[in-house]
Design goal:
Blueprint lengths: L3 E5 L2 E5 L2 E2 L2 E2 L7 H14 L9 E8 L2 E9 L2 E6 L3 E3 L6 H6 L3 E7 L2 E8 L6 E6 L2 E7 L4 E8 L10 H10 L2 H6 L4 E2 L4 E3 L2 E5 L2 E2 L2 E3 L5 E2 L7 H16 L6 H30 L6 H11 L2 H12 L15
Parallel strand pairs: 1-11, 8-18
Antiparallel strand pairs: 1-2, 3-4, 5-6, 6-7, 9-16, 10-13, 10-14, 10-15, 11-12, 12-13, 16-19, 17-18
Helix pairs in contact: 5-6
This protein binds flavin-adenine dinucleotide.
Length: 320
């Protein structure tokens, strides 16, 4: 998708984000498609994959991690490695077993419900904020559109009420109802509530990448891009670092510093969005001016989608 439409209480900014000099393309892949691509790419580069293998323990020698223990379809196994990368998601086993300290925990700030729709013809990403709720439409594979609703925890529907709450919240916004006209729900809404937390990234023989090291509310839709960015920074930092333990520790420290420098602003910005504070009059007036200025609109859209880092945590306005 190239186009992005951002609607804050009726102030609408539209644009095509830019990554450097090129137009940025937004993808909202289903995990089934993305994971299969990643596995195929890793195999092409020579990686050996053990599917359905669960890591349950770390092997350590003199305080240094030297491998993992776990089990899969072929039974239990111990795998030795000079470096164990915990890329095992927000409930990371590697982080827990390595004793990685949580350096910041903002808790669970928002709740989400999301469902897949067919027959929706929105060509780009559309995000609509009304009061303390946000609704986003993302075209994805197979002619489907994923429609997410984010809301504050105190509005969370009781047991068995999620579908009714989700549908009513979408219908309450005429622009969303119009966009979904002719569409049909193909799944019931699924619930999500993600903690916003960052962990210390490395220790002797281990390192965390992606959600294992920092995870945040899906409201800013940055998690996958950030996981890829971590992987790239780690690969670059390792360089000749696998040569010996000292070089490795230095390389991991370099990775952690770069990761934090690159990710901190987006983490703070995501938490700010997930607090879902109502937009203040000053912010909305500013947005009106931004919408009338093509360059300012471009900069805003670029930051909102994550092509540019927000300049500071109060980016969405003092009163937001
Ligand atoms: C509801 C919801 C909506 C989201 N929406 C977006 C969005 O729109 N855009 C976006 O960019 N991000 C979104 N995210 C965040 C995104 O899913 C994550 O940031 C991203 O998947 C992180 O990738 P990862 O590889 O670090 O971890 P994961 O994708 O969690 O992958 C971890 C992998 O490790 C495996 N694993 C875990 N434990 C073990 C173990 N002990 N042994 C072996 N393997 C193990 C898991 O099976 C999994 O395959 C959303 C998240 C949620 C919950």
């Amino acid at each position: 998708m190239r186009g992005v439409s951002l609607d804050f209480e009726g102030r609408v900014l539209t644009g095509v984000p830019r990554a450097g000099r090129a137009e940025a393309v937004t993808y909202a892949p289903r995990r089934t498609a993305l994971d299969a691509l990643l596995v195929a790419a890793a195999r092409t580069r020579g990686a050996r994959l053990r599917e359905r293998f669960s890591v349950t323990g770390l092997v350590t020698v003199d305080g240094r991690v030297t491998g993992v223990r776990g089990s899969g379809p072929d039974g239990p196994a111990t795998l030795r490695a000079r470096l164990v990368v915990g890329a095992d998601g927000r409930n990371s086993t590697v982080a827990r077993l390595a004793g990685s300290a949580v350096v910041e925990d903002r808790g669970t700030l928002a709740r989400s419900l999301y469902a897949y729709w067919s027959g929706v013809t929105e060509p780009g990403v559309r995000v609509v904020f009304r009061g303390r709720r946000g609704i986003s439409l993302w075209p994805t594979h197979d002619g489907l559109t994923v429609v997410s609703l984010i809301f504050p925890p105190e509005e969370a529907p009781g047991p068995g009420r999620a579908a009714e709450f989700y549908t009513a919240a979408l219908r309450a916004v005429p622009e969303v109802e119009q966009a979904l006209k002719g569409g049909a729900l193909v799944t019931g809404p699924r619930a999500a509530a993600v903690r916003n937390a960052r962990r210390h990234a490395h220790g002797p023989g281990w390192v965390l990448a992606g959600d294992a090291g920092h995870h945040k509310d899906p409201v800013s839709a940055q998690g996958i891009s950030d996981a890829f960015a971590d992987a790239a920074v780690l690969a670059d930092a390792l360089g000749a670092g696998l040569r010996d333990a000292t070089a490795l520790d230095e390389a991991l420290a370099g990775y952690a510093a770069t990761r934090d420098a690159q990710r901190l602003a987006a983490f703070a910005y995501t938490c700010e969005q997930a607090e879902l504070r109502p937009f203040g009059a000053d912010f909305l007036a500013d947005l009106g001016r931004t919408a009338a200025d093509a360059q300012a609109t471009g900069a805003f859209v670029n930051t909102f989608v994550g092509c540019d880092a927000p300049s500071d945590a109060g980016w969405l306005g003092e009163s937001h």
